[in-house]
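call fold(seq) -> tokens
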Amino acid sequence: MIPLKYKLVWPFAEGLAAVELTVNGKKGFIDKTGKEVISLKYDSAHSFSKGLAEVTLNGSSGFIGRDGTEYFEP
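ret:
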């Protein structure tokens, strides 16, 4: 079961689903048990593909790995 604190939940891809918090609209990722595995701090988040997901944080676009490693241009 996915808690009601999420406004939106995207389909699972590579074992993770992007979610959006109801309170502030921030996005992150949960695993299939519902555990938050990547911080819910992103302004936008897309599903994983080939081990990476596109995200936006504070106006900067980049990617994150399934382990939460961020790849943003300096």
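Residues 6-60 form one domain.
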